[in-house]
Design goal:
There is one protein chain. The protein is an alpha+beta fold. It is 30% helix and 33% strand. The mean pLDDT is 96.
């Protein structure tokens, strides 16, 4: 394996390579759902960001973002896509691209980066919360409508819209390795768990949902592997999403913030949980946690 170089795009012709990465990373059948080169070129030349990861003269990853604005935050940097070729996953390329984006955003006067992702994807949850230190205060059912790539096909495009406060102590400690998410054992006696599950053969499915707000901390289970579940039982995968819609909407509407992803290995099974905390944003961004 050669060395990875992280750099700006040199010319418009390279944007076709970026599209190839999109197609590969998301399992697109064609380029219909990829961002066209002329749009990427326009973003680059109007205050946006496009950086690539290159190995041996070949683009193997990219990060794409532009300026956003809303009433809650004012101006922020919106991170639209981060993608890495499937052959290059597991080498820390996506993390390095996000850190390059953070450095660029700070240098350009931003304190906040926002993006959406599917909250049912455990690896993305681990990356966003565990490695980067994002938080989440927004949930949108079927945000993009129908999506036809292999990752999203067949299920509604429900999304978290996460906040990455790039100059906060929480983020600085998390990316610097001085902070980590709590383990399941550290929080299990402090939380309310509204979702109960059971094994259906080898697959874990939702058994019941009971919503309550008596506790400051709430631990919400979500699929250990939504992609495997979808392949084996699409109906149960859809039920997970529909039940979790109720849970996320209920708690986020009542002031809870999604603060951590907590994985659990139990009898060889991978399980996933989100930790929600009813709090203001300031103690969270300082890294003041009630479980420590």
């Amino acid at each position: 394996m050669g060395n990875i170089v992280y750099r700006d795009v040199r010319d418009a012709g390279e944007l076709w390579e970026v599209m190839d990465v999109m197609k590969d990373a998301w399992g697109m059948e064609d380029y219909t759902e990829a961002v066209p080169p002329h749009i990427m070129w326009a973003i680059m030349h109007n205050g946006g960001l496009l950086k690539v990861a290159e190995e041996d003269g070949r683009v193997v990853g990219f990060v794409l973002g532009f300026t956003g604005r809303d009433e809650r935050h004012g101006l922020y940097h919106y991170s639209h896509m981060v993608g890495v070729r499937r052959s290059h996953r597991g080498r820390g390329i996506a993390l390095r691209l996000k850190l390059e984006q953070r450095k660029w955003a700070i240098n350009n006067g931003y304190s906040l980066v926002i993006w959406t992702y599917d909250p049912h994807q455990g690896l993305n949850a681990r990356f966003n919360f565990g490695k980067l230190g994002v938080i989440n205060r927004e949930f949108y059912p079927n945000y993009y409508g129908e999506m036809r790539d292999s990752i999203n096909r067949g299920l509604p495009s429900d999304r978290f819209r996460v906040e990455w406060w790039i100059q906060s102590p929480r983020v600085e400690m998390r990316i610097g390795g001085r902070d980590r998410p709590p383990s399941f054992d550290e929080v299990k006696d402090l939380v309310y768990m509204p979702v109960t599950t059971r094994l259906k053969g080898s697959l874990r499915v939702v058994e019941d949902v009971k919503l309550a707000t008596r506790d400051e901390l709430v631990l919400v289970e979500f699929p250990g592997d939504i992609n495997l579940l979808r392949e084996n039982d699409l109906r149960e995968a859809l039920r997970w999403k529909l039940e979790l819609r109720k849970v996320f909407s209920y708690y986020i509407d009542r002031g809870y913030i999604v603060v951590e992803h907590i994985p659990l290995r139990e009898n060889g099974e991978r399980r996933n949980f989100y930790l929600l905390w009813r709090t203001g944003i300031n103690p969270l961004l300082r890294g003041d946690y009630p479980w420590r």
